[in-house]
Every structure is written in structure tokens, then in C-alpha cells.
Specification:
Order of helices and strands: EEEHHEEHHHHHEHHHHHHHHHHHEHEEEE
Number of strands: 11
Helix content: 40-55%
Mean pLDDT: 78
Bound molecules: protoporphyrin IX containing FE
Distance between the termini: 45 Å
Largest sheet: 3 strands, antiparallel
Shape: globular
Low-confidence stretches: 1-95, 383-387
Number of helices: 19
Strand order of the largest sheet: 6-11-8
């Protein structure tokens, strides 16, 4: 039974207490967005203020909880099936879809490279709807069913690599392997061929750029003209970020070109991808190559470290709570066949799905800094007013279920390692738009 309680809507970036009234807020001269005069929290503010991880985490908990309640942000709510995808007005009547009422603030555009027009960054509702129409079919549960074997093959390879690393090094860095896995999955499903990170088995410029993408996004949002400034101001941080931005463009372009090459090589056997409709729209000249590239950029970033950071925190948190691990292992042993289970079976496991929900609640990978504009007059939301805006929700949940189940089946003795000085400090969350472990590693041993 849903509770009908009123919660204040987050203002564009506020965590201020109480109902947010635009009248009390300032107006961003650049974007026209209303913003609160005080109590502002964004990852970029954290960056400016040099907030330490516990302080950020404290704020993120507030933001994460309230944002999840408001249905605008992540946490178990965002990635769960919503009881309603409609906004509720003060008196509880159904209104327009929530995403159309609480429009994206200018911050979304500042996070991405200048001029990028993707489903993530656009603020124009018609254009956003157009992109969503082209993309949501590929992300539906029925369409993802056909992609399950590719997802499973990547999960299996990640676990095999972890096992090898444990044998050689004494521990496996699950942060690294989950990142490689999620990157390869989004590559294969979107462009027809994986980025082959799991085969290469080592970090390269591409994966390092992806790891740093949230920091660069936060930097860009703080200094929107850093690409320009970096030409004249030889500050290493700007130079590095500008170079990484150019590489991001190039990587997205190459990924789209790679798909085109695959199509040309065997036109009779073109695999369905998450972008099938988008590629078709480009062929029909309804979409430009630049728009395809921009959406590719969005998928590459949004579809990789969100999932891999969540999996890293899931493994870490479960290993640190033996009673949780025991209950999870019991469920996996009792209710899953030893071989040949699929997503349908995994969906039926309440404890596994509870562990995933709880990880998303506590370590929501994108639990802050995605501000929406409060309509004039302010709004009160009811708890029932939940919304799903993450287009990758079904894919993310499929990956999380499969990878978590296979990991704990493969390594029932998994424990956090103290090898090479690994400690809880490494797992302190840092938040530059996306939440990730401060040490950029999570060593786990299982023997
Ligand atoms: C655990 C994993 C994930 C988390 C926690 C997560 C979280 C989020 C959040 C908080 C938003 C912003 C919602 C908003 O402000 O409108 C979002 C949007 C988005 N996500 Fe995810 N996400 C995850 C996985 C994925 C995956 C696997 C993809 C695959 C491509 C993806 C693609 C996107 C895109 C394209 C958007 C923009 C959608 C729109 O505005 O219409 N996400 N996600």
C-alpha cells in the first residue's frame, strides 16, 4: 500500500529543507533556471569546496533519499518498476508525466561537451521525446531478451578473469573487471562489437578516460568554457580534460563507424542493437550523424560506470556483512539450478533483488547533481509520484542480477582483501556527478 505523504520537490540543485518556492530562489542568468539562494549542493560545488568523502556522502544520503522519494533521481526507486509514472498535484490528482513537469535544468547541458545533443542532455521536450522514441524499443525487456546471451558471455568472461587474477595476484580487482564488463556489454549491444576490454585485460586510454568522465563532467559544469580556456591557460588539469573530451568525441565516432563497417561487411546478417532504430533514422535522413554520435557518447558513459560502480559496492557491502552473504548464498543454492538459469529465474529471487535495491539505495551511482526545474509556484509531491527516467533501467537490472548471482556462485568464500594496502578508505565514495570508490579499486579474495 503506498503511503500518501507529501514531500517537497528538490529545486534545481537544492537540498534546502522545506517546500521549495521559486520566489525564494535566484535565477541563473545563463540558463534562466530558478535556483535556490542557499543550501545548494552539486558535485561541482563539492569539487570547488574540496569536500571530503564523508561530507559528500552525508549530503548524498540526504539528496539520494529525498530525490528518490521525489522520483527524480536514482536509488532503488528509479530502477524499480514504478507504481505510477505520473506526477501528482498537491491534491493527489494525476497530472502530466513527471519528466515533462520537472524539466531538466541547464546543468545537464553543462555536464556534456559543448554542442552535444543527446537523450541525456537535451532540454527541449519535443527533441527529447523524439530521441526516447528511437531508443526505448531497444531497451525494452522483450528486446533485451535476445541480447541476454551476449550479456551472459561477458559476465562469464569477467568472472573467469577475476578467478585468474585471484590465482596469480592473490586478489581480484572487481572494480576494474566490472568496469571492463559493463563497457564491453554496452559496446556490443549498441555497436555490434564489444570494446574488448575483457580480452585485453588491462586498462588503456579509453578505460582511463571513462573512469575520469564524471570528474571531467563536473569540471566542465564548473568551468563551462574550459575547452576554450585551455588554449590560452596552460593549466595541466584543463589541458588533460580538454584532451580527454576530444578523445570522447573520437571514441563515439569510431564506435558508430565500426557498426557501419559491420553492416557493410555482411548486410544480410545485421544484428539487432540498442541503436537499431536510430541507425535506421539516420539512413532515412531523419537524424544527423552528429546526433547519432552524441547519443553514442551518452550510452558509452551512462551505460558503463553506473552499473560497474553499483556492482563494486554490492560485492563490497555483501562481503562485509556475513549474514547477508549467507542468506544470499542460501537463496542462490536453493532456488537456482546449477546450470542454465536465465533472467526469468533471477527475477524471482527476492533476496538477490533486495540486495540490489539496497545497494542502489545506499550507493546510488547517480544520486545527486541531476537537477530539475521547479515549476512556478513550487510543488508538493506525493510518494506515489515516482518516475522512471533512466532509459537503461532494464539493462542495468539484468546485468546486476546476473553478475551478482554468478559472482557469489563462483566465489562463495569472497572476502575483502587487505592485499597491497587495500582498506575501507579505498571504498570511500567520491562524487563528481557519479559515485565511485575513492581508491578506484576493490580487491577481493576468495581462496
Ligand atoms: C545501476 C545503473 C544505473 C544507474 C544508477 C542509472 C541512473 C540514472 C539516473 C539517475 C538518470 C537520470 C535521470 C534523470 O535525471 O532524468 C539516468 C538517465 C539515463 N541513463 Fe541510467 N543508470 C544506470 C544504468 C544505465 C545504463 C546501463 C544505461 C545504458 C545506456 C543508462 C542510460 C541512461 C540514459 C541514456 C539516461 C538519460 C535518459 C533520459 O534523460 O531520457 N543508464 N540514469
Amino acid at each position: 500500500m503506498l503511503q500518501r505523504r507529501a514531500y517537497p520537490v528538490l529545486s534545481t540543485t537544492s537540498i534546502g529543507i522545506g517546500r521549495v518556492r521559486p520566489g525564494r530562489c535566484g535565477v541563473d542568468p545563463a540558463t534562466g533556471d530558478r535556483r535556490p539562494a542557499a543550501g545548494v549542493f552539486t558535485a561541482t560545488n563539492a569539487l570547488r569546496l574540496g569536500m571530503d568523502a564523508p561530507a559528500i556522502r552525508a549530503v548524498v544520503h540526504v539528496v539520494g533519499t529525498r530525490a528518490a522519494v521525489a522520483g527524480l533521481c536514482v536509488g532503488s526507486r528509479l530502477l524499480s518498476s514504478p507504481p505510477s509514472s505520473h506526477g501528482m498535484s498537491d491534491n493527489g490528482r494525476r497530472g502530466a508525466p513527471i519528466a515533462n513537469v520537472y524539466l531538466k535544468a541547464g546543468f545537464y547541458q553543462k555536464l556534456v561537451p559543448p554542442g552535444v545533443s543527446s537523450v541525456f542532455s537535451v532540454r527541449d521536450t519535443d527533441l527529447h521525446r523524439r530521441y526516447r522514441r528511437l531508443l526505448s524499443g531497444g531497451m525494452s525487456e522483450s528486446s533485451l531478451k535476445s541480447m541476454y546471451p551476449a550479456i551472459e558471455a561477458n559476465v562469464n568472461l569477467a568472472i573467469q578473469n577475476m578467478r585468474e587474477e585471484m590465482e596469480k595476484r592473490g586478489a581480484a580487482d572487481v572494480f576494474k573487471w566490472w568496469m571492463f564488463m559493463a563497457t564491453d556489454i554496452i559496446g556490443e549491444l549498441t555497436f555490434g562489437e564489444s570494446f574488448r576490454m575483457l580480452e585485453q585485460k588491462k586498462k588503456n586510454q579509453y578505460s582511463l578516460d571513462l573512469e575520469n568522465a564524471p570528474f571531467i563532467g563536473a569540471l566542465r559544469a564548473t568551468f563551462p568554457s574550459f575547452l576554450y580556456i585551455s588554449k590560452f591557460l596552460p593549466l595541466p588539469v584543463f589541458k588533460r580534460a580538454a584532451a580527454a573530451t576530444m578523445r570522447h568525441y573520437r571514441d563515439a565516432e569510431e564506435s558508430v563507424a565500426r557498426h557501419r563497417r559491420l553492416e557493410l561487411a555482411d548486410p544480410t546478417n545485421v544484428k539487432a542493437t540498442l541503436f537499431s532504430k536510430l541507425y535506421k533514422a539516420e539512413d532515412d535522413e531523419q537524424l544527423s550523424l552528429k546526433e547519432t554520435r552524441d547519443n553514442a557518447l551518452a550510452y558509452i558513459v551512462a551505460g558503463s560506470d553506473t552499473t560497474s560502480n553499483t556492482l563494486t559496492y554490492l560485492v563490497w557491502a555483501v562481503c562485509r556483512h556475513p549474514h547477508v552473504k549467507k542468506a544470499l548464498l542460501n537463496e542462490l543454492a536453493s532456488f537456482l539450478p546449477s546450470h542454465g538459469f536465465g533472467d526469468q529465474e533471477l527475477k524471482q529471487l527476492p533476496y538477490l533483488n533486495g540486495v540490489i535495491d539496497e545497494t542502489l539505495r545506499i550507493y546510488g551511482a547517480a544520486a545527486s547533481a541531476l537537477p530539475r526545474v521547479v515549476p512556478p509556484g513550487g510543488r508538493l509531491l506525493l510518494v506515489a509520484a515516482l518516475a522512471v527516467t533512466c532509459i537503461g533501467v532494464h539493462l542495468a537490472r539484468m546485468e546486476l542480477r546476473l553478475a551478482a548471482a554468478k559472482f557469489f556462485r563462483a566465489f562463495p568464500e569472497a572476502n575483502i582483501s587487505g592485499l597491497e594496502g587495500m582498506s575501507d578508505e579505498d571504498m570511500e565514495p567520491t562524487m563528481y556527478f557519479l559515485l565511485s570508490p575513492k581508491g578506484k579499486r576493490c580487491l577481493v579474495q576468495a581462496y
